[in-house]
Structure formats: structure tokens, C-alpha cells
Input
Amino acid sequence: MPVRITVDNKIPAFELKDQKGDLFKVTDFIGRKSLVIYFYPKDYTPGCTSEAKAFRDWFDEFFELDCEVVGISSDKCETHKKFTSKFQLPFILLSDKGNVVRKLFGVPSAGFGLIPGRYTYVISKNGTVHKIIGTRTRPEDHAKEALEAIRVLQKS
Output
């Protein structure tokens, strides 16, 4: 059984390809920026689309707080590229083929283990998890909750 990342844990180092096919290294951000990493099931599904659009709508505020927003699913880079273009998503989407990073974080599944879980991790500049937002019936709420957590983190 994989280890589950919890509040006050350091996140694991990982590398994945983004929607442009470029290599994203989380270690490039540790020590420089706060991070919001959200795991979601699949591009273009209703819940995932509303969640992505909410992060898009709040993106300027995350940016002003020196926070990088990163979405992760098992979709291919090309699918992510089309998804970001269609919905004008200004943040990074990573392709986690085989759910390797999802397993590193120990993200729980939903729907009797059949659906990848929807979890958002708010991470301080030093790479420590500050808050975890679990699966909700309103996925668009993840962005607002994450933004509130970043604001609290910036004040401390």
C-alpha cells in the first residue's frame, strides 16, 4: 500500500511532462514558490472541467501570491494541450501516465476504487504540505479553498 502524504509532510520529488511536452520538475519550484497541486480524474468531464475553470478564474490571485497552480491527471500531453486551449487555462497540466505521481502522493480513489480521486494539495515554498482538500461534490470549490489556504500560508 502506498504511503499517503499528509499535512506537514514534504512532497516527493517528481518529474512529468506538461501540456507542451516539456519536462516539469517540482524541485525547480521548491524554495521559490508556493504550489497548489491538484489531482483530477480526466480532462473534459463535467466536474474536472468546472474545477479547471475555477482555477483559471482565480489564477490571477494565485499568481499575485507567487503561487504556481499545477493540475495532474493520467491524460496524454496532447489531450491536456487541447483542454488548456479550449478553456484558456493559464496554468500547468501534467501527464501522469500510469498514475506514478498519484501513487507517490497516495491519492485515494473514488467510486469504489474505480475513479481516480480528486485531491488538492497546498504546498509551502519549502515543499511542505500545508492543507489537503479532498473529493467534494462541488469540484469548483477546490480553487477557492486552495486560494484561502495560500493566503493564510502567506501571512504565517
